[in-house]
Amino acid sequence: MPSLKEEIAGAVAEELQDIETALAADLGARLELVRMIAGHTLFAGGKRLRPLLMVLAAKLCGVPGQGCARLSTIFEYLHTATLLHDDVVDGASVRRGKPAGHVVYGAPAAVLVGDFLLARTGVIAAETGSLEIILAMSEVIGTMSEGELQQMQNAGRADLSEAEYEEVIYRKTAVLMETACKTGALFAGAPKDSVACLGEYGRRLGLAFQMKDDLLDYESSQEAMGKPVGQDLAEGKMTLPLIAALARAPENDAEKVRRIVTERKAGPDEFAYVRRLIQETGGMETTRKRAAFHIDKAREALAGFPDTRERQLLLKLADYILVLEA
């Protein structure tokens, strides 16, 4: 019996192929160095979740498959641009199991190609002639940039609250999924309530996605993740597993963790200590439950749509977020 991942992949094979074709066609006309650097990350095994969300949302609202794929590439371009920029800012050496773009091609080239991809999102959005879509893309780039700045400001803050954490992950991650879903509905000319419901679905999906990713940083391995684990702690980032653990930890343990976060000096021993504390205090289970709560809300947001193939696929994608392993 196929896994949920295999079931979804088989069901959306045509949509994914259309997205791959559109990405390859657009990049094929670019400067060779742009193709090499963008392709290094763009074609390194990403899930294409964000463009797929846009395509399925558009189809759910009545647009045939043709015409969706090219517009959907803006969400993969924007995501890839943020990865290129983030890896330079964070000094990350590995991305998706390969050397990060700036390691191979240098930071200046990686940043400039990220800028180029951001520019392409504006051009492709403008081709629709929809002021709403152009505005949505402009806003999402600004919001994601604010999220990165917030995360930088919060580094080393051991007193970060869950509300502050959710604000950051909304801006860094969830807003892009929210905008992908809303854009699909806007492209289809859907009524405002449908646009809002699909946006809510994408927002909740994105929050759960980032929570699960933050959980994997303490549960998974570098081989499975395609990037080093323990990076959040080493960089002084307070994510939900650790926030939940600190709320329940004995004071002597909590003080030690706060010092590790504040000093941003987490080696293998410190990471093992913090991971064990998160497990013992229920921080991991709390994170799973919070992610499941957001997935329930995402499913509720689709309740008013007809029970089509696309609605069923979006529901399965929501379920898949909770079983992601890398």
Describe the protein:
- The chain has 326 residues and is mostly helical.
- It has one domain (4-321): Farnesyl Diphosphate Synthase, CATH 1.10.600.10.
- It contains 17 helices and 2 strands.
- Helix 9 packs across helix 10 (192-219), helix 10 (192-219) packs antiparallel against helix 16 (283-301) and helix 13 (240-248) crosses helix 15.
- The relative contact order is 0.12.
- The mean pLDDT is 90.
List keywords for this structure.
2 strands; about 75% helix; mainly alpha; two-stranded antiparallel sheet; Farnesyl Diphosphate Synthase; about 0% strand; about 325 residues
In short:
Strand 1 and strand 2 form a beta hairpin. The chain has helices at residues 4-11, 13-28, 32-42, 49-60, 68-90, 101-105, 107-126, 131-154, 162-187, 192-219, 222-225, 231-234, 240-248, 251-263, 268-281, 283-301, 309-321, and strands at 94-95, 98-99.
Strand order of the largest sheet: 1-2
| Alpha carbon gyration radius | 20 Å
CATH third-level topology: Farnesyl Diphosphate Synthase
Largest sheet: 2 strands, antiparallel
Based on secondary structure, the structural category is mainly alpha
The level of helicity is over 70%
- Give the integer mean of the pLDDT values: 90
Query: What overall geometry do the principal axes of the alpha carbons give?
Result: globular
The stretches of 5 or more residues where confidence is low (pLDDT under 50) are none
CATH architecture classification name? Orthogonal Bundle
Percentage of β-strand residues:
under 5%
Question: What is the CATH class?
Answer: Mainly Alpha
Helix and strand sequence:
HHHHHEEHHHHHHHHHHHH
The CATH H-level superfamily is Farnesyl Diphosphate Synthase
- Provide a count of the helices: 17
Number of strands: 2
Distance between the termini: 21 Å
State the domain count.
Answer: 1
